[in-house]
Amino acid sequence: MMRYRSCANKFLYVLLILTLIVLCSPCLPRAWEIENYIPAWPFLYRNALDDKGKTDVFWPLYHHEWDNIRDKHIIRPWLFLSETNLDEDSRNLSLLWQLNKYSRKGDEYSLQIFPVYWRKNTKDIYYHHVWPFWGYTRKNSYIEYSSMYPLFRFGKDSVYNETNIHCLWPVYNYHRSPDYFSHRFIPFYWYTRSWGVVTPYYWFYTHSTKAHGIFPLWHSERGDNFKKDIILPVYFRERKDDTSKGIILPYYWKNSPTRKTKGIYPVWYSSRGDDFKSDLILPFYWHEQNKGKSKGILLSYYWNNSPSCKTKGVFPLWYSSRGNDTKTDLILPSYYYRKKPESSLRLILPLFGQWNSGTTHFKTIASLYLDYKKDDLKTRAGIPIYWLYHHGPFSFTSLFPVYYHFKNANKSSEFKYILPFYGSYVVDDFLEYHFILMPLYFKFENQKLQLKGWNVLWPLIHYEKSPNTFSARVLPFYWHIKDPDYRLTIGSPLYFSFASKNHTYTYLIPLYGKYTHDAYYKRLLFPPAYIDTRDSSIQLSRKDIFYPIFSKIDKKDTHKTRFIPFMYRYKDPVKHFTFASPALLPPYYFRYEKGDHKENHLVPFWGYTKKGTYTRRLMLPPAYINTRDPSIELSRKDIFYPIFTKIDKGDTHTTRLIPFFYRYKDPKKYLTFASPALLPPYYLRYEQGDNKSVHLWPFWGYTKKGPYEETSSIKPLIRFGKNSQTGDSLTQVFNYYCKKEDNTLLRKIYPFYMNSTSPDSNKTRILTYYKEKDSDSSLRSLYPVWIPMSDTLENILYEFFKDSPYEHLSDLSSYSLWMHKKSPASDINQILFYYHKKDAASSVRTLYTFWMPREDIGKEEYTSPDKLFPVPAPLWVHKKSDTKTKDASFILHNYERDKENDSTEFSLLWPVPEQIRAFEYQKKSDDLLKAKVLGKVVSYERLDHETKDFRILWRLVQKSNSPESSTFEINPLYSHKETEEKSYWAICGGLVGRTTNKEGEKNLQYLWVF
Fold this sequence. Notes:
The protein contains 3 helices and 103 strands. It is 3% helix and 59% strand. It has a 103-stranded antiparallel beta sheet, covered by helices on one side.
């Protein structure tokens, strides 16, 4: 850190020294002694006149302006700005341009620290922001609170009864006041009392006008004596009072009591009215007459005549205009003349120009002569020999290159020079310069400062002396400056020495260097061969040899040593770390110790790790790894990891030899898989409870699930199973399938035929036709060519090889092109994308997407693991019964009402996950109330009268109450939690915190642990 501060100090001192050299150098007048100007740009420029002026140092780096009431400093580019105005009592201060800015004018001020802090206080507005956590704005009686500005804002005006809420601005907004009401959810809708938009339909109503349309194709508007219709892009018509206009492409018209217009765009146009006539035939002819005025175009000839002005011309060569006292002539490209009563202008390009007005006269003959007069300003130049300038007390005359004269009567300053022999410069009889064959020799003397000096071949040889200062130089070999505050000596190019009150620099390049600052000391020998750094104030001792290759640092109890790239060591009272390599090649030595954590490695031969009871040993890893942890009964061995692994952890045992063998065993389950050479036969054994399975695939297999036993070969193509308790059986031989269960016989030949017979019903499917009938109901349906019979992916792949548990109406109807079912209780009709069910107490109507889900669309439909396929996707559904009502549209909204339980649910962007739903509302009697905006962006939950939870951005702001505890958090700044046993508050998550128990004892902690 001291090294970086030293470099920064060196840069600032060098910049200061260069600035002082320019200001103090006797080759030019001193800046604070000359009130006129110093023309040493770009190094130094100063111009002072009538108590005001400006200064530039190393333009454009530093700039200064001042006058009686204003003072301005600038350090470019964009580093610093300071501006003070006494007349306006104002101050502007900027660091790094607009990132950090302070402004004050009277009692009003503003402060900005980008991007985290803004504050402003004026008579009209006050705001205070700590972004992105919190914001406060007050304007008159209106107060606004914000977080993540401008995403969330809440504003209220108690005087005018106004409320304004923004959430994820500009998506959601709610705004209410006595004379205005608006709410929106972009891009779906925007509503106010007088107009609204439900994309793409919009409407607009006032006390005299009504309008509506479908953007951007159709617009209709009606009002008192007003009518407008638009159908883009072919039709437009508007009628207002006695005026009508319209377009039916390409014909258009406009009629009013005073004028009638018609035309065919863009070829023909005609308009007639009182004292008005206009005709247009593009591109040849246009003529217009209007109350004594006439104008027109006939090919390249045009005219414009009125009682006061007549104009004519041939475009683009000639133009002539006469009117009142104005005369204009133009002949392109050489002549222009314009005359008015107060002025005249004449140009004969490219040589002659003349301008006259009441106070100004200008004449030029390019590029030989210039004459300009205005008020008391006069300048005349015979280019390039003669120049005269006179303005108030200032005069300047030059006869290039022999004579030069400048005089300022206000400041009694005068400068004369007869090149190249002699010149003089005098200011108030205090400072006098004598120039002899400038720049060969000149001398100067200031009696007020007792300063004398001379220059030879300026700026190479210089001498200056006063009672307190001394300066001498012979460029480029020697430079010496002595001042009460500092001393500088430069012996170019090898020697440099600088000394001030707190700093010393001495360098003999490249042999030796020395720098001191208070207790800090640095010495260099043949840098970077050897660098010695010390600082007694922080107990620092550092040595660098061929920096940065070798470095040794001792700072209090901390020790660092490095030898790049072979060794690095760090040690303090808590931690020890060592890394070493003899020649950038293995072996690598690594050591780490901190508390009970120890690491020792000699890569790639050996390694040891210990963390508490956990130990790991490595020999030529990954050839052998041994891991143990007695606290969790862990013993593990790996040989050529991950090929062979054996793990024992309590009663669990795992062994694997990739890819030939895997075994897992615990008190409840046993699994073994083996294959001799990754090819059949495969051995599999599995046991869990009364379920057992043994397979030597593809030759033989045996499965037992309770009383059911099954024998197979080339499973699942050949299977024979029987239930010893019920007598049920299963037979499958390739595409023939037969199952007998509970007096029901099912036969099917995939994929052409299926028949199921039971005492109560009969089911038949032949290709795409399905029929089912029992004593009370009937079903007929027609399917697509491919008919999945189940919901899970496994059952779809092996539909006719395994028994399907889903053969009831809801599964079959989910895939039918047409279906009709009738029973005493209900009547169901389904035609492709439409579904309707009606019974005595309820009705259901649903409009589906391109594929048909089942009729039950409850919330469990989306979470049940056996219903992952297919996913229901209804576009619209409506259910109604005596006590329940449901209305939903995919994926915009969902509404449910249960009168019996007094519950209501409403959500937007449904059925997406709760975390990203736009809005969700639930209410069940008086106990449960939930409201959420975008999941946890803003949420409120009430389980009962004592249990409540309110959040913004999940936990950015949280306020919770329950019978056992209460919590209030503004993260990460402040949190407070109170229970029956204790209360706790913390700042910055525990940077400062306090705990109070129920006995009143208090415990203060800081930095989370102390």
